[in-house]
Task: structure prediction
Amino acid sequence: MKVFVVGANGQIGKHLVDLLNDSQEHSVRAMIRKEEQRRHFEKKGIESVVVSLTGSVEEIADAAKGCDVIVFTAGSGGSTGADQTLLIDLDGAVKTIEAAENLGIKRFIMVSAFQANNRDNWNEAIKPYYVAKHYADRALLQSDLLYTIIRPGGLVNEPATGKVIAAEAVERGSISREDVARTIVAALTEENTYKRSFDLVSGNTAIPEALSKI
Result:
């Protein structure tokens, strides 16, 4: 499958693009927001397109033409205000969902936030971020897309272990960004993740097995 990665220059995005580029099963197109970010991908022979999530649905759709799957792993980042969180993490995600629908791309994987589905468990310090993720996820749930929503715990830059806990609700924990990327790749064709959403933290179960038992 050809995978369109939104947020390819992010920390999870870069891991994901590398994994897909090295894969024998899949190919990748990286969506980035700045021309200067293109060099990172060009050096590796990875196809990239420059599009802003603050642009139009049509611009996002044009960039994704010819792809089979969209993975949304973009984020406004912790240093921006609530306005950018609203524009990128919510409206940008919803526009990407609309672009997928317009193109007839059925498979859509969303990287959300731990327990974004449960208001009682939101971190008050970054509440606008949780609000954005919650309603972006809702838009995906209400679509006709073949979705998977992954809600990772605290993100760390440690090496991947390849072992996780994946379930509708798990105890709060952390997970390496590389393991999130590996989980996305495994979920692409794991039918047990179709039309499912789940929390994801580090654990003792190999990723393919964990996904097969959600």
Summary: The first strand starts at residue 2 and ends at 6. The helical segments are 11-22, 38-42, 57-64, 82-103, 127-141, 177-187, 207-212.
